[in-house]
Amino acid sequence: MHAAKDTKAKTKAPAKTHEVQPGDNLWKLAREHGCTVADLREANGMTPEDALVIGRDIDVGACIAKGKAARAKLGAAVGSGGDQRRYKVASGDTLSRIARKHHTSVEELRALNDLEGSLIRVGQVLVVPGREPRTIRLLTGQSRGRPTHGWLHDPSRLPHSSHYLRRRPERTYASAHLVDHTLNAIDRARDQHPGLHRLAIGDLSDEDGGPLSGHHSHQSGRDIDIGFYYRQRPANYPKEFARATKDNLDADATWALVEALVRTSGKDGGVEKIFLDYEVQGWLYAAARKDGWSKKRLREVFQYPDGRYAKHGMIRHEPKHDDHLHVRFRCVDADESCK
Ligand SMILES: [Zn+2]
Hints:
Blueprint: H1 3-10, E1 17-19, H2 26-33, H3 37-43, E2 57-59, H4 61-73, E3 84-88, H5 95-101, H6 106-113, E4 125-129, E5 143-146, E6 149-152, E7 156-157, E8 164-166, E9 173-174, H7 176-192, E10 199-201, E11 223-226, H8 251-262, E12 271-275, H9 278-290, H10 295-298, E13 315-316, E14 325-329
Parallel strand pairs: 8-10, 12-13
Antiparallel strand pairs: 1-2, 3-4, 5-6, 7-9, 11-14, 12-14
Helix pairs in contact: 2-3, 7-8, 8-9
This protein binds zinc ion (ZN).
């Protein structure tokens, strides 16, 4: 009837309809077609008060398109046997809190776990999108002595990956637990921020450890230099580190990486310290606050906002660390040769 309206309609998702059958409900239809209940309602101009009318055609085309996009975004986690992790429900958890924590939606969690409502119980194991973390190898005898005066025996190596670039492959040797904790942290950042660009990896240690040119530490396989994530990947990155600015740093994604590293600190061989420019700490601090971390908890993570000489926080200011994180891992508890 109206030409303008017709043209507009053609650019929308292809119309595909479903005739409502007895026993249908919005959850079921959303799950069958891969989108969320909210998507279905939106495509059909329904409010939460509207009931499904048997015999009515509802548009599922937009739902199918949205479902495809969501699956691509989640790394095909939904419905294809793709990457999935398990999460054990803790006291105080709600579905929406778990969804937020894993950067997914309540609808996706319901679909992944075949839940109808919002009732979950403490101790229940839920499937959440993302890669299952690898088991941390806790080998003894690899890291000998101290980071500033030590060496490496029978080293492990950070493998080649499409998720990062090893700038100097001859300096990618380390203790096994550093490699495993680091890979898990990078996976976690990528789970939370699908589509991240490659990360620059600087030096770890060389094959037998010991003094490494350009560094004071990095001698015993417990240090690694890791670049940042950027809103727009700088021209020479990841071949070169790039200085962070308030405008170019992707503070949310970089915080996701730092957060995953910080969370290893309670585990055997986890992160001991991170050296990072004070100003960059401030930008990540803001991202962490936005992410729901309290000021009290962040006091254990950052020196910010108490100045670059503050004596708290596992992240400490170091000059010339405005283009990478220098991450130091602890010794494996049972390893007596590691200092
Ligand atoms: Zn370093």
